[in-house]
Amino acid sequence: MNRTEERQEIARQLQKNGWAIVDLPAAPGPATGVYYDRYGREYHDLPVDPYSVKHYRWKGFKLTPPVNPLPLPVEEQEVQPAVIFQPSEDDWYQKFRAG
Known about the structure:
Elements: H1 3-16, E1 32-36, E2 42-47, H2 50-58, H3 92-98
Antiparallel strand pairs: 1-2
């Protein structure tokens, strides 16, 4: 008998005696918010209790977006890969070399 079946059996027994099982809502988790770095990137669902705010502010994050965000550093920018030309087998050059 798995846990769900066990709960259903207990609920049936309690209902026979005039009782009922009521599922309570889950307890809310810690308060979370959105932090911003100096480049304007958003970091969602980070805690906003006083200790965490102090910790994230020490690391350079803010709870409000920057007015003039800095451009991303070169190593973090999205780099497009270079397209290298590779002739296919039906390419005219291959046919020319084959003679």
